[in-house]
Each structure stands twice: as C-alpha cells, then as structure tokens.
Amino acid sequence: MTVILVLLTFAAFLLIDYLRTPKTVVQPAIQLPAREIGIRRAPALVAGFQVPDNLRYHPGHTWAMSESPEMVRVGIDDFASKLLGKIEHLTLPQRGRWVRQGQKICTVARDGKSVDMLSPIEGTVVDINQAAINNPKLAQADPYGDGWLVAVQAPDAKTNLRNLITGSLARVWTENSAIRLQQRMPQLAGALAQDGGVAVDDLTAHMPDEEWAAITKEFFLS
Description:
By secondary structure, this protein is α+β, with helices and mostly antiparallel strands. It has one domain (about 50-220): CATH 2.40.50.100. The protein has helices at about 1-20, 80-85, 130-135, 135-140, 155-160, 165-185, 210-220, and strands at about 45, 50, 55-60, 60-70, 70-75, 90, 100, 105-110, 115-120, 125-130, 150-155. Strands 3-4-5-11-10-7 form a six-stranded antiparallel β-sheet. A three-stranded antiparallel β-sheet has the order 6-8-9. A two-stranded antiparallel ribbon has the order 1-2. It is globular, with a radius of gyration of 26 Å.
C-alpha cells in the first residue's frame, strides 16, 4: 500500500507540473513569394561578382534566361555592370528587329564614349525595358532584375542556349575575368572585394575615357 501511495503522489506532482508549464505554440513558416523575374535571392558570389546559377552567359558578359520554349530575357551581368560604371545613355533595338547571337544587342554610353554589348541569343525583339532606357542606372544597379534589357522570341532557343556558359563553368569564367581585369589594372586589387566580398559598383570611376573604352571593348568582345 505504501508503494502505491508513493507512486500516486509522484504521478500527481507530474500532472501538476505539466498543467503549470506554459505551452509553446509552433507557428508555420511563412513562404515569401519569389521575384517575378525568377532570379534567385542569393546568387553565387565569385571574385566579388554575383553569378546566378539559373542563367546562361555569353562570353561578352550578357546573360540569357529562358522564360518559355521560345521566349528569352536578356541583360548584362554583374561584372559588366560594375565595369561599365555610371551609365549615362542606353540604346536598345526596336521591337520587331531580328538580332543574331554574338552581334550587337545594345550600346552603352558614358562620358562621351560608348561600347556595344553582344546578344546571347538569336531571334526577334518582342519587348524592351523602357524603364532602363529612361533611367540607364537601372542596368548598373540591378542588372539581374529591373535593369534587364530586352525580351527575344528565339525560334532556336534550345540550340542558342547550349552555346552559352552555365553552372560551374560560369563561375570559373567569372573568376578568370576578374583575374584578367586585375592583371590589366593592378590598382583595382582592393576594389574587387569590398563590403564583405562584393566588388565596388564603379570599378573604372577614375579611369581615363580612352582607357575605359579600350578595356570595356576587350572584355565585352565588341
């Protein structure tokens, strides 16, 4: 009988302790909607430059993103945006124009000098980013988002996209571009990894106009 009383008393203490302990309510995680353009929020950072892994890159530092079997969005990559710096004027092709892969897709002007960017895709321009034309700084400040350039209807998009750089090769290529730029301009060594590893926004801010034109044409293959 004594053993039973002890067990009952112990059980009563456990019940009282359970009733007095506040319960923690687990709230379900809230899923925030992704950006419409589909760029990941935390793209890979390579040598100070963002390299989203869901894009394909042209060696002239433009990108292509497939939005449907024949619809491709085009822009400049982060390396290009930082090498171009403070863009003053942006010229885009008219809707309905046929562009070829590896040929001019737009012209960027700064301080009276200009450089052409090459198209990563071939097809008909069906939309242009008027906001970027009105405010060219968008292409420099948000090249993978609001600073996109054009949308192209590409009948042979599958083949075109296979010709571009993607995945781990894109990261190696970006790192090699950064190394080449530092070798070309040793004074940029500190600017390529500022603010937690991110390259500064205008790498060529104090570069003479002639040198800016030569370097951008070299890297953008134009």
